[in-house]
Amino acid sequence: MDASDASDELAVNPIRRERRRYLDVAEEVMRSVAIGLIGAGDRLPNERELAVRCQVSRSTVREALLALELSGVIEVRPGSGCYLTGMGIHSAAVVTPPADSSPRELIEVRQTVEPAVARLCAANIRRAELQRLRHLVSDAADMTESLPDEGLEQFVGLGLAFHRELAAACGNSILAGLTGHLVDAGEHPLWVLVDGIVVRDPDARTRQVREHQAILRAIANGDGARAAEAMTAHLGAISDRIFGPASEPARVTRTRRRGPS
Q1: pLDDT, tens digit, 9 for 90 and up, residues 112-126
Q2: Is 77 helix (H, G, I), strand (E, B) or coil?
Q3: CATH number of 92-251
């Protein structure tokens, strides 16, 4: 990201947790760095804007900025503002999967990671984040019927955005960063290609939307276990649609050691 004012990118949201308020503000800034919304050299919003966004007092914001400055995360430039130094926080980019990862490898990792994301979302998601997810699902639902080939990439993009937004709302910056890389269309064009082939079928698009709706219902109800189950079922269905259902004997062969003859 260019060294510029990052006011429009910072993912700060109203604070809910009961603890020292300035730590919550500092955590929101660091989370925005970890998931790639802002980067080294960017300028933070001013005190007043941060106070409004986080629904805290300006004195609380000043405490948070002081803590970040002492930690080496930001540099305060008198008369100019607070800038991210790139020090004191590790980006989730360190866990970026290789760009040439196969679609099968990607879905296997997603099946491990994303149920945990869904479970956390049920406990941590905020109203505005839930509303954005509902809009994504609604937009995808409008595309389940006849769709020209040029619209398939858009449908795939909406599905990946759903997973990316879920990850950003889970409250864990490491999971958010990892999932963001796993569902980045630019980093994994082969995934976009194979997924685009599958969703040419209107029934496949409809099933995907319904699966996303099931995940979202569980999250909106605060049911973490059900959300994780719905995510597991969804990613398993994606795998089956792309690669075909694995036969039961094959699963046994992979998971069971051979006993003595």
Answers
A1: 999 999 999 999 999
A2: strand
A3: 1.20.120.530
